[in-house]
Design goal:
This protein is α/β, with parallel strands linked by helices and about 675 residues long. It has three domains: about 50-280, TIM Barrel; about 405-605, Class I glutamine amidotransferase (GATase) domain (Rossmann fold); about 615-670, Golgi alpha-mannosidase II (Immunoglobulin-like, Sandwich). Helices cover about 30% and strands about 20% of the residues. The two termini are about 30 Å apart.
């Protein structure tokens, strides 16, 4: 992955990116001088410009007006502020949608969406693709050599609000995608199981998107449509990125959305990451989640995985409240700093925000900003300035990598898509929730975790967790089998390995793809009632799921102690080659998961760090010579951390121990023994 850190300062010294979305077009030009002056006060060195500027850059088809953008970029350059320049393709202007109404997206129930918000287009629309390419070309030709521009920003949050699209144009593109994938209609019928419900197809042009029907639509059709929809957006990105690269050597990116928890069918970011010159991500805390800091850590770990372990860019997060949650709760004092440095601790080389100046009109006018409605006489502004100084103080860390991860969590996009299809054993089983349960158990113990795909090289890890990977390919199963056989430890949870890549049940007993790995055969699922728990003979109780089965070659560590599955194995351990495979047939409580994880780490000879409390986060980055420890205290009490070195934020030597105040952060360059 390319880096922009050396381009953010006049002398080429590496620096963390600090700033955010800048929307000068929303303000009178008389405000711009104040903006750049205050940016310099805050220490801002990087802003994203032009993301939603299409309507002003192209007021009518083929007529471009760049004068205002010229002035803005020149002003930023004069002030030493670098630019992440967008190609503005994210939101077609009203004139475009009015002229080409067929370009608007269509919902699964046949409703064509109107314009008046953002991202009102179908990714398969030839009119949209042609207009986006033309705009991108004009921007690239005009600004490829502008000294303020250090990177290109394609589109914005692909898939948000307008994907998937079920229009006729998308339908035709879906047919072509299917013909390329299957080549033969009989192969499609076999993959889709169309003998069920008289769904057999004789021609590819008979197939439609999985639009709303009388009852459940063919699940493999829905799965393939998710794959197609991700690929269509990727085609849009690649076309625009190729134009930018043809005119400029600068790195190209687009902003991901982590686990995309709010999207119907999120994008397969693993497939996209190889097309990024650097990986960027947007992250927003769920204000009412009491452990949202752990969710932040999990999201950052996932993005770091997309970046192959290297540094990445936090393109957006918030200084305080957002505008779109049911209750837009402001961040507490110090939370802005903790959130930002937490992303840095987990591999980000930039901490950018949406947005620079809080809007006075539009749907996001109550979204927080670096410069709030209250102006510079405000808590948020003072914390922004403090953060800018912090990032300068720790600049020596730029370019280093997160180190010390001995555990990987498997997250395959296909598995998530398939797990969220209709007609499953229970609506309470959630891949994301189960993933978070295991990540949180490791987080509470202070264990750094990476995210990987099942087919990745896992040989550098001691433990691999496979949480509810419902769909598992033969290649993924073989990879995990090889990892275990070579001495690794694997944890596989319920609802894993159940189907193949076509969403066909793997017959012969559950967990299908992992039956020989787990040495435990499950014959029937017994989902629990809403809110119900079932006692286990060890590790507390189980939630969501129970199973009827028996051990084959495995050792039973805990049984279900009640209900129709009483006496069946709930948690087992099986020797596979030189390694060990654990199977967990229920969703444990946080306490039960922690107890089991602690035992597994000990048995796997993976050290559990010594730290003060569940809410004190310890992470390390290293450049191969030096190591820096980040200690972030999310708890309500002061914490003592054992570390020898110098706290870069205060300049003080630790002398073996360091007290981190409640809500505080320390970044220590560790002394080499």
């Amino acid at each position: 992955m390319l880096s922009i850190s050396s381009r953010l300062s006049a002398d080429g010294t590496a620096a963390f990116g600090f700033g955010g979305d800048y929307n000068p077009e929303q303000w009178h030009p008389s405000v711009w001088q104040e903006d750049v002056a205050l940016m310099k006060v805050a220490g801002v060195n990087l802003v994203s410009v032009g993301i939603f500027s299409w309507a002003l850059l192209e007021p009518s088809e083929g007529r471009y007006e760049f004068g205002w953008l010229d002035d803005v970029l020149d002003l930023l350059q004069e002030s030493g502020i670098r630019v992440d320049l967008a190609n503005a393709s994210a939101s077609p202007p009203p004139w475009f949608s009015h002229r080409y109404p067929q370009s608007l997206p269509v919902t699964a129930n046949g409703v064509r969406l109107g314009y008046g918000s953002r991202q009102a287009f179908c990714a398969s629309s030839p009119e949209y693709r042609r207009a986006a390419a033309a705009l991108t070309t004009e921007i690239a030709k005009r600004y490829a050599s502008h000294p303020a521009v250090v990177m290109w920003h394609v589109h914005n949050e692909y898939g948000c609000h307008n994907q998937p699209c079920y229009c006729e144009v998308s339908g035709a593109a879906f047919q072509r995608w299917l013909e390329r994938k299957y080549d033969d209609i009989d192969a499609l019928n076999e993959a889709w199981g169309t003998a069920f419900w008289s769904q057999h197809y004789y021609r590819f042009d008979e197939i439609t998107p999985p639009r709303q029907s009388g009852t459940f639509v063919n699940p493999t059709q829905v799965l393939d449509f998710a794959r197609f929809s991700s690929d269509e957006l990727l085609d849009c990105y690649r076309a625009e990125a190729d134009i930018l690269r043809a005119h400029s050597p600068l790195p190209v990116t687009t902003n991901f959305m982590g686990f995309s928890m709010g999207l119907d069918k999120p994008i397969d970011y693993w497939a996209w990451a190889d097309h990024m010159d650097l990986v960027s991500n947007d992250h927003y805390l769920v204000a009412e989640d009491p452990r949202n800091f752990q969710e932040l850590a999990m999201g950052a770990d996932f993005v770091r995985g997309l970046a192959s372990g290297g540094p990445w860019v936090l393109m957006e997060h918030s200084t305080s409240a957002v505008n779109w949650q049911p209750r837009n709760i402001a961040k507490r004092p110090g939370e802005l700093r903790r959130n930002s440095l937490q992303h840095i601790a987990r591999g980000a080389d930039a901490a950018l925000f949406f947005q620079w100046r809080a809007a006075k009109a539009g749907s996001e006018k109550f979204h927080s900003a670096l410069l709030p409605h209250a102006g510079t006489d405000s808590r948020v502004w003072r914390e922004v300035v403090e953060l800018g100084a912090d990032l300068v103080a720790i600049a020596e860390i730029v370019g280093s990598r997160v180190c010390g991860a001995a555990v990987a969590i498997i997250h395959d996009t296909d598995a998530r898509w398939a797990s969220e299809l209709d007609s499953h054993p229970t609506i309470d089983a959630s891949l994301l929730n189960e993933t978070r349960l295991w990540h949180d158990a490791l987080y509470r113990l202070g264990v750094t975790t990476d995210f990987r795909r099942s087919t990745d090289d896992l040989s550098s890890y001691g433990l691999v967790v496979v949480p509810m990977q419902y769909l598992m390919t033969d290649a993924g199963a073989d990879s995990l089998r090889s990892f275990a056989g070579n001495g690794g430890t694997v944890v596989i949870t319920y609802q894993s390995g159940i189907v193949d890549e076509d969403d066909h049940i793997r017959l012969g007993g559950y967990p299908g793809a992992f039956l020989s790995l787990t040495g435990t055969r499950i014959e029937e699922f017994y989902p629990l009632h809403e809110g119900e728990e079932v006692e286990l003979t060890r590790y507390g109780s189980g939630r969501v799921f129970s199973e009827l089965g028996r051990p084959l070659t495995s050792e039973v560590l805990a049984e279900f102690a009640g209900g129709p599955t009483a006496g069946s194995p709930a948690i087992t351990r099986n020797r596979v080659g030189m390694g060990t495979v654990y199977y967990v047939g229920t969703s444990l409580t946080p306490a039960g998961a922690r107890e089991l994880v602690t035992e597994i780490l000990t048995a796997s000879s993976i050290p559990v760090p010594q730290k003060s409390g569940d809410d004190v986060e310890i992470t390390r980055r290293s450049d191969g010579t030096r190591t820096w420890l980040f200690a972030i205290n999310h708890g309500s009490a002061d914490a003592v951390v054992t570390v020898d070195g110098v706290d870069l934020l205060t300049g003080a030597a630790t002398e073996g121990t360091l007290t981190v105040a409640s809500g505080g952060v320390a970044v220590v360059r560790e002394t080499v023994a």
